[in-house]
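Box S1 | Example of a co-folding query
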Amino acid sequence: MPQVAAPGTVDPDLDSLTSDELDRLDLGVIGLDPTGRILVFNDAASALSGLSREAVLGRNYFREIAPGTNTPGFFGRFLSGHRRGAFDERFEFVFGRMPQPLRARVRLHSGQAHGWLTIEPLESLGVGAPREAVMAAIDSRFRAEPVDPGLCEREPIHIPGSIQPNAVMLAADPETLTVVANSTNAGEILPAGDPLPIGRPLAAVLPLPFIDVIRARLASGTLGDGRSVRRTLRLDGGTSYHAVAHAHAGRLIVELERAPENPDDFAEARQTDTELAVARLRAAETLAGAARIAALEIRALTGFESVLVYRFDVDWNGEAIAEDKDAEWGRSLFGLRFPASDIPAQARALYTKAKSRFVVDRDSVPVPLVASADAGNAPVDLTFAQHRTLSPIHLEYQRNLGVNGSMSISIMVENRLWGLMIGHHRRPHYVAPETRAAATVLTDAFAMRVQEIEARSLWAERQAHLDTEGRLVRELTRADDFVSALTAGPVTILDLFGATGAGIVTGGRVTLIGTAPPEAAVLGIAAWLRDRLGTATSFASSAFTIDLPAAAPYREIASGVLAISVGEARETLLLWFRPEVPSTVTWGGDPRKPVLAGSGPVAVLPRRSFERWVEERTGFAAPWAPWQVSLAESLAEAVDGVVLRQRRKIDELTGLLAEKEKLLIQKDILTREIDHRVKNSLQIVSSFLQMQRRQIADADARQAFSDTSARVMSVARVHDSLYQAERIEEVDLGQTIESLCKDLAGIAGEGHAVDLTAETGLMVPYRKAVALSLIATELVTNAFKYGARVPGEGRVEVTVSGAGSGTVKLRVCDDGVGLPDGWENKPRGTGLGMKLIRAMLDQINARLEVANTPGACFTVTTT
Ligand code: BLA
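Box S1 (continued) | Returned holo structure for biliverdine IX alpha
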């Protein structure tokens, strides 16, 4: 036990002094019953504590009057002393605030009738450099000009250079295990007169088995990243210490705090308490229910006057979503919101690594860490240290909030800082190590339950949405028009995301469903959104009319918008609208003024007022969840796919069409080419026939050659017409017959003429044209042969005319003497001509009428 010798002073025999004599002592003297109830309180004790005798008599000194002493290191010694019978304990203690921090020599000893506590003041202390600065800034009054809350984020809270006085810290080189830094109170764990551990091997101050464990864990690399090894050690003649060792940033750090001798002395949590609490948490069905149970169980376990479940929103503002507190404490923070700057970014980052912080006494004087000269000046990184002193600015915040002892445990959900389990106590509040561990376990159990509850409801909601999306995509793949597929079917985009209005904007075309702003306004919103989107595919806002005043008139129906652009072209937007949720948000203080200006080394201070500050919120809709945005994006991709597919189909068809046209043109050219060649061949055949005719003496044979030549010619004419025609299947009959007649007249020789009257543009199919040409050839050559009154001077009249609906008339009349009766049975010439005519008439389903007018007149009518 580090006993402080009191040179020159002899301890007075308190049992023998009267109360007047006690009052005359410079020493604070307090008489206590075995539970700590105050029986005697002398004047010096009154002066030191600032409390009158009347105010304290009968009350528990450790628990009620000086709760900073309600720790194993003070009250614990008193309790174990009583258990042993006679006791006399001397140690140094720093009283946090009485009203100035005071370093004092303390003696606890048993007397005849009751126990004694004496307090001998050694020195009045400053509050520690950082707090000194804060206090100075407060004293110099606040400056009113606006300050930057961002300054809060720059405080390097992981290297405060000090720890809370409830523990002793040793920092060693992890290679050599030589102590390179210690807290200045490290003498507490050593026998009186021992030198401070700094520069000594760790093994010289801590038991070897513990050193061996540390060595093994260091070697296996299992002491870093927040992992630690915990043991209860007996040091300095048997006092129990709770030791925690961890490695971080090139240091092995050991923290030692006096352990409660008896679990009941400081209401240590038992495993069964924890297990029962976890079971109750697991049974909670809703988030609010789980939060309520967590607050209640953790308060029961830790004894804080108030426990809050504090939840962060996406912007790191927070809200107290559950509170369990002492009914006697009028203040309630339940339902209040706090701005993100109250817990700055570097603190949140640290809390995702190190999971818990406990402050016994906000006003306790931090114990500095000193380093050996050869270890360099690098401050010890206390990120994972349990007894790191918290930011003096935050402690000031706690003071403004009326909080002294406190706790905060990180609630981690899916590896993200979801919130904090916060404990508040109006006075100092010690929580035993086992209890702290239990509170952390319970908080983890709560986090898991949150994860389960959130995941379950999210899963159900997502499943329903995926189903809807699936049906929409099926519609899309079936429909030609994606807009109607998404807005007009049995399922529409309005069935997604709890939106009350939705729409599709494609270029200048707007299709709306549900309750949405009018088309013109939506076009304006779409233009603004395209701008906002830039190269992004999605834009989601729960309060877009704040940035787009033009849309403000519609905020009742559309305060929130989710917009997704479709495809590369970004021409199409899918839109969802959500209505305004009229709401008030109650902040714990004005969130626009989170900081006050400090001065000197302290530039910012936390606000002092936590008065309810009600913000009327207009223009806010329920926020869009990230999964909803990504689901909307996947729908847009599906739309893009379908639109693309349609475009591809059209492209394909256009390609095919072009190909066909090309083929058609080629075929046309080919056919014409063939017709041309056929015509040429026929002309050659015809010429041969003419040539042979000339070499034949027999008149009939000559005539036969001549007739055949004419027939071949007529077919050649048709092919010539075909070759020249615009359309390949049809020929201009008038033109064909005209050329034919000229040929025939030419073949027949001088004196033969044809008077032709032909309707122009009378298009007939090729087959019909061939047949009619052959018929015309027969009739005209016959007329030349037999119909002339003066042989060799016949005139023939040919008429080609249409008679509607495809009917064609061909008339061939001569100016001869007419046909004799019964001419059909006594054919002129060989009769071959007439046979050919009949065959042709049959082929094209035509009729032949014959009359003498007085010359022979033949009329062919096709149907
Ligand atoms: C830390 N601020 C914190 C912490 C809480 C709050 C819970 C964590 C403390 C811990 O882990 O023990 C704030 N406390 C709250 C809130 C409630 C509460 C919102 O009980 C409501 C129920 N704080 C300020 C300003 C600054 C600031 C203006 O308000 C800076 C200028 C700083 N807060 C600040 C810092 C920390 C902090 C630096 C980190 C403390 C530390 O871990 O060292």
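The pocket of biliverdine IX alpha is lined by residues 149, 152, 155, 157, 308, 310, 318, 320, 333, 338, 341-344, 347, 357, 390-391, 393-394, 397, 406, 408, 420, 422, 594-595, 604, 606 (CB under 6 Å). The domain at 265-456 is CATH 3.30.450.40 (Beta-Lactamase).
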